[in-house]
Write a structure and sequence with these properties.
alpha/beta; 38% helix; 10 helices; six-stranded parallel beta sheet; six-stranded mixed beta sheet
Length: 318
């Protein structure tokens, strides 16, 4: 199978046949599952989820199509690729939405077309009738652990939160979980800003927050994807090793950072589990075998990683 990026759409070549927007092989009789995410470039979590989902679909003898919006903020472009898949007549769609509201109209289109949708990673606002189930990490519970880790690490003091993007369900829930984790302690949040899941923005907002609150003791980032920007700002301020940084997701880049002491720890998600379950439930929805008793949310679980267990867990990072 070959993937070729053309504009905002990834074309999938399977056995010499290429599928793109508006195309469907006339002889196609095999179930085709579409997977839509914001990006797989510079986001190993999204890439890992997509790869595991596609591998699962193909291991069952079915076909997979992957489309991306282009980058972290290309919501309109991602919506367009979903419309393309609906027009192609895919059998089911696995969707990783970067915004909790923006995809509701296109999900309504999928429902009208009789195409079941499984949500992965980040949820949407209400409208449970528009999707089969949502597979992901319980972001409130996992980030609560991150908050507890911060209390353990610093005891008391000021902290920042580097959020994801505005409107992101995952970002909002992780921030809420972190607040819950430090509740009742002497750790407080004095500033929080959107890093938009990218290095440049996360570096800029961290620099701004450090200027406003130079005595900060800790930083919680809603995703490890923003750690490079955060640590750059911390290093520029001459504070590397003096500020406790705790992340969320479990990227490979955090292993070295934890080992050298630049990062205290992170809460690891399991993209392999999310991707595979998303694909499994999408196929079951098509076949009519999905167990509705599972409900509208399936928690894939999360694991805290610090210097104490980084050697044991590092092979599970992505």
């Amino acid at each position: 199978m070959k993937r070729v990026l053309v504009g905002m759409l990834i074309l999938i070549s399977i056995n010499g046949m290429v599928f793109a927007s508006g195309q469907q092989d006339p002889a196609e009789k095999t179930i085709t599952i579409g997977y839509s995410c914001k990006t797989i470039t510079n986001d190993d979590f999204q890439k890992s989820m997509a790869e595991y989902a596609q591998a699962y679909v193909e291991s069952k003898g079915y076909k997979s199509i992957l489309t991306v919006g282009g980058d972290q903020d290309s919501i309109a472009a991602q919506v367009n690729t979903i419309e393309d898949m609906i027009n192609m007549g895919v059998y089911a769609i696995i969707l990783s939405p970067p915004d909790k509201n923006a995809f509701i109209p296109v999900l309504m289109q999928a429902k009208e077309a009789g195409i079941p949708v499984v949500i992965v990673d980040s949820g949407i606002e209400g409208h449970e009738d528009l999707y089969v189930t949502y597979v992901g990490t319980n972001n409130v519970a996992s980030a609560e652990v991150a908050g507890q880790m911060m209390v353990e690490a610093i005891g008391e003091g000021e902290t920042f939160v580097v959020l994801g993007s505005s409107g992101s369900d995952a970002s909002e829930n992780r921030a809420a979980g972190y607040r819950k984790g430090i509740e009742g302690s002497n750790v407080v949040i004095v500033n929080e800003q959107n890093g938009n899941w990218v290095t440049d923005t996360s570096m800029s907002v961290t620099e701004n927050m450090l200027q406003a609150n130079p005595d900060v003791k800790g930083i919680f980032t809603c995703s490890d994807v923003m750690y490079p920007g955060i640590i750059s700002a911390v290093e520029s301020a001459g504070l590397k090793g003096k500020i406790v940084i705790i992340g969320h997701d479990g990227f490979k880049l955090t292993v070295g950072a934890i080992e050298e002491g630049a990062m205290y720890g992170t809460v690891m998600q399991q993209p392999n589990v999310i991707g595979e379950l998303g694909a499994k439930y999408a196929i079951e929805a098509v076949l009519g075998t999905f167990d509705k008793g599972l409900g509208k949310f399936v928690d894939a679980g999360a694991i805290p990683m610090t210097a104490a267990n980084v050697e044991e867990l590092k092979d599970m990072t992505f």
